[in-house]
Specification:
Layout (H helix, E strand, L loop, with lengths): L1 H16 L1 H21 L4 E10 L3 H5 L4 H14 L3 H9 L10 H14 E5 L5 E8 L6 H62 L10 H34 L4 E2 L10 H14 L7 H16 L10 E2 L1 H40 L1 H42 L2 E6 L12 H26 L6 H8 L13 H38 L1
Length: 506
């Protein structure tokens, strides 16, 4: 421990003996450093905070979700620092006073892009916009004013791009879609004309739309339906024929007083029941048949007049029988026609296979164009509606929470801290130089150092004797050293005070 203490004393003695060198190095470095700090231009920063509301019930209803609005907001925020927008900032602020040509504008734009910050907070609705102005050719007041103007112009551009940008984008989108719709409409019309011409040449035999295979399938389905209807019609006709066979054409006779006999009345009732479609097992039909049989056995069927009258039930059944027969005939004729057309189409398909391929291609082209046309029309209507909603309700609502104010103090550099740092660095450098010189020169401050260096024992050492005159000289030099050191610190403090005074004046 004693050895370490001795070594420390030796180092301190070496530095102290070269204190004037250390002081000179400190003065030189501090003066250079303070000059460099003084040449650093002041940077004035202006900040603003904007609240952006992207929520809208009506927009959500028509499909403009908050995510889409937030994407639009991110797009505008990312393009806020574009060259076009920054050129507007240069031309509409005091920066234009120092611009003399396109090259100056390009240089200003490059500087602005580095000094502008647009940042979203944890709440995406809050956006901070800041700008820094540090032009050494301008005064501090001019830099502070320009920083405020830049932020204000950025806010104006931000709002303008959201209010008018959506309208312009909607107009451009609608114009593009109208052009595409017109082109697709002409192509669709041409494709439809080709399909009509093809149908007139090849597939006009079968009604309906679609390819040859589709039309043939439709014909087969219609034939199957006709077969089902024909079976029903033939069954109904057979039933009418059976009823007609069991119904007399005339009634047996009338009574003496001109009225119908009981047998004729009973037969008329039975015929009316059968005309209604009742079967022979129906209870009423069975009862009526028993009554007719009983009257015939009892002789009630003889007529005193000897003549007969037309049976109205027979006439009604005859009319329905003719109607059923006409239906059967019409269905049979239609089936034969369809079958003939189907056979003709099958023969064409076998003889000309390229016809089916051409038909498929025409239908495929038409379907694709029709799908594209319908999609474009749907997109146009959606964009038109969204544009109207954004225009009428406001896609984004702005509120400036913190307006851009003119800064009163520079944001950078922190000169007081830099001045103190230069002082500490200068003093440290001076001490380091003095220490290095002490290590390089071959002096031995103690007998132990000399004995260690030579490897020989040292008999003794002679102490230095200082007279009164030398003591006075040393005291005077100490005063000069203390004054020079205090002057270095005083200069640093004076520069700090001047910096604060200048800030207050600004």
């Amino acid at each position: 421990m004693a050895g370490l203490y001795d070594e420390l004393l030796v180092l301190l003695h070496g530095i102290w003996s070269r204190r004037w060198v250390a002081l000179g190095v400190a003065w030189g470095l501090c003066m250079l450093g303070w000059l460099g700090v003084a040449l650093i231009p002041n940077s004035y920063q202006s900040k603003a905070r904007v609240y952006v509301n992207t929520q809208s019930l009506l927009q959500d209803t028509v499909g403009i979700t908050q995510v889409q609005s937030q994407q639009d907001l991110d797009r505008v925020r990312s393009t806020l620092a574009s060259a076009e927008n920054l050129e507007k900032v240069v031309r509409d602020t005091d920066l234009s006073q120092s611009v003399s040509g396109p090259r100056d504008i390009a240089a200003k734009i490059t500087t602005l892009r580095e000094n502008i910050t647009v940042m979203a907070q944890a709440d995406p609705s809050m956006i901070d916009i800041s700008a820094i102005s540090a032009d050494s050719s301008l005064s501090d007041g001019a830099n502070a004013r320009i920083a405020q103007q830049i932020v204000q112009k950025l806010i104006d551009i931000f709002q303008e791009q959201n209010l008018s940008g959506d309208r312009n984008q909607t107009k451009q989108s609608l114009a593009f879609l109208d052009q595409q719709i017109a082109t697709r409409g002409k192509q669709l019309e041409a494709a439809d004309q080709r399909r009509v011409a093809f149908a007139q040449r090849y597939v006009g035999l079968l009604p309906g739309a679609g390819s040859i295979s589709q039309r043939m399938d439709a014909a087969r389905m219609e034939i199957n339906n006709i077969d089902s209807q024909l079976v029903q019609a033939q069954s109904a006709l057979s039933a009418m024929n059976g009823q007609l066979a069991g119904t007399p054409a005339t009634l047996p006779g009338v009574g003496a007083s001109g009225g119908a006999t009981p047998l004729a009345q009973a037969q008329s009732n039975l015929a009316a029941m059968r005309a209604r479609g009742w079967t022979a097992s129906h209870p009423d039909v069975v009862a009526a048949q028993r009554e007719v049989d009983a009257l015939r056995k009892s002789g009630g069927g003889s007529a005193s007049g000897g003549g007969g009258t037309p049976n109205p039930a027979y006439v009604s059944i005859k009319s329905m029988q003719a109607e059923r027969a006409a239906t059967v005939q019409a269905l049979s004729t239609r089936k034969a026609q369809l079958q003939n057309d189907l056979n003709t189409m099958m023969s064409k398909q076998v003889d000309e296979p390229e016809v089916a391929s051409e038909q498929e291609k025409l239908d495929s082209d038409y379907t694709a164009l029709k799908t594209q046309y319908d999609k474009l029309m749907s997109d146009r209507e959606e964009i038109r509606l969204r544009g109207e909603v954004k225009t009428e309700t406001g896609a984004v609502q702005f509120r400036v929470i913190q307006p851009p104010s003119t800064p009163t103090a520079p944001s950078a550099p922190n000169r007081p801290l830099l001045l103190l740092g230069v002082l500490i660095l200068g003093i440290g450098a001076g001490i380091g130089v003095a220490f290095a010189l002490g290590q390089l020169k071959g002096a031995f401050p103690t007998a132990a150092r000399l004995e260690k260096a030579l490897g020989l024992p040292v008999a003794g050492s002679i102490s230095q004797t200082v007279g009164a005159a030398q003591v006075a000289v040393d005291r005077q030099r100490m005063k000069w050293f203390a004054g020079a050191s205090g002057g270095l610190v005083a200069v640093c403090l004076l520069l700090v005070v001047v910096e604060f005074v200048q800030r207050g004046m600004a």
